[in-house]
From TrEMBL:
The chain crosses the membrane at residues 9-33, 39-63, 70-88. It comes from Filibacter tadaridae. Keywords: Membrane, Transmembrane, Transmembrane helix. This is DUF2619 domain-containing protein. It comes from the Bacteria.
Length: 91
């Protein structure tokens, strides 16, 4: 039996694999450089990757589920993501 994967799900899986590969590569670079300043710089760059992947994968999922989820629910989900990101940046 052949399992068909939805296109949106395939994109989410690929993005998560890329994101995980970036994280592992960053850890390997931190180990290779063995320098706290460089590790801090690499970690700062990773802080940009995570939220971008979160927003993009959530957007793809919502587009894939657009016919099954109401507009109000979509707005609430994006508002929740915004609040999470906003709380990380606030003091």
């Amino acid at each position: 039996m052949v399992t068909v994967i939805e296109r949106a799900l395939l994109f989410i899986i690929m993005l998560r694999l890329i994101s995980g590969s970036i994280e592992i590569t960053a850890a390997a670079l931190m180990y290779k450089f063995n320098d706290l300043e460089k590790a801090f710089y690499i970690n700062t760059l990773l802080a940009l990757v995570g939220p971008v992947i979160l927003i993009v994968t959530t957007g793809i999922a919502l587009l894939g589920l657009a016919d099954k989820i109401s507009l109000t629910r979509m707005v609430c989900l994006f508002a929740g993501i915004f609040l999470i990101l906003f709380s990380l940046k606030s003091e």
